[in-house]
Structure formats: structure tokens, C-alpha cells
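Journal club side-thread
Mid-discussion, someone asked how the predicted structure for our own chain would compare to the paper's figures. Pasting it here so we can look after the session.
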Amino acid sequence: MEREIAEKLLDIGAVTLSPDAPFTWSSGIISPIYCDLRLTLGYPDLRSKIADAMVQIIKQYFPDTELIAGTATSGIPLAALVSDRLQLPMVYVRSQQKSYGKGKRIEGTFAKGEKAVVIEDLISTGGSSLAVCSVLEKAFLHVQGVIAVFTYELEEGKKNFRVSGYPLYSLSRLPVLLQVAAEKGWITEEELALIEDFRQHPRGWKVK
């Protein structure tokens, strides 16, 4: 599954590898990788495979889940697909509290004490996903874990999740994707080394 998802993400351009012309993330990190996993929504077979895989993870590891929570905005459509398959209620968490109306941060109906699983598209440092977990916990929901489509497997992200105590499951990971890209001849050995160097030292990385 990891290899299949990785190959599909590369094939449709949802993950772009460009060590010679890197991208700037919103966090300011200079990166040889850029992910736009929203592109998966345009491929019915792939988005269905992603949703089915997330459902299987929930059934195996979180069988008593009562609520599916999507991260805004990218996790919302995936959470909708997953909640529909499981016939469970769904909410989504805004990045900021609304400045009008009822001032909600969590949109949707839920009951205190419900067991929730957070659906995310991408994990880098884990900061945004863990912020969502915190919002849900403050609303007296019990977060069982986070499921993502893809993770960079940065050490900072792994450490943040270890400290949080929330389990993280991902359908594919950067090391697997790089292996697939190298085997397919989509990146050279030199480019592979540059990207791996980024994964090990993301905040200090630059093109050599």
C-alpha cells in the first residue's frame, strides 16, 4: 500500500521533487519537496483507495471510534469520505475561531466524551495536526489518534507526536516515496542524497 500510494502521488504531481529549484513552505522552511494532496480528489479511484485504507486503519486500531474529525481545509473531504463509509458523525476544526456568529472553532455536532480520530492529508512537523487534537480535547472529546495520507517523517514531527502521546498512522512516507522515485528513474542518486539530507536537517537545509 505504501509503495502504491507513493507512486500514485508522484504520478499525478501531488508530490513534486525538485532539489535544484526548491520551494518555500508557509513555515519559511526551504524544501526540495512540495505536496499538494488536494489533487488526489480529482482521481476517483485514488481517493477511494485512500478513504478505504483509512477506514481499515480505524477498524483495526480504533474500533470504538465515535467521531471523525477533519482538519481544515485539506482534511475535510477525506474526513467526509471516511465518515460516510463508517456511518459516523463528522466535524471539522477551523484553523482559527470564527470572528462572527457563534464564534465556533469546531464545526458540526458532537457530544462530550466521544472518541474521535483526526483525518489529515500531510504531516511535516505535526504542529497543525496536534493543534487540532488540542482543540478537540479542550472540547472534552477524546482523541484516539491521527491518520494522514503522507508524512515527511521529519525527526521534529516524530518527536512532537511521541511527546503528545497520540498515535500517528500514515498511508505512505517520504522514505518509501524516495525509494520508488529512485527505482523508477525519476530522481538521480545525487538528488536522492540531497532530499534525504533535507529530511534529516530540514530547518538548516539549502541547495549545495
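Post-session note: The mean pLDDT is 94.
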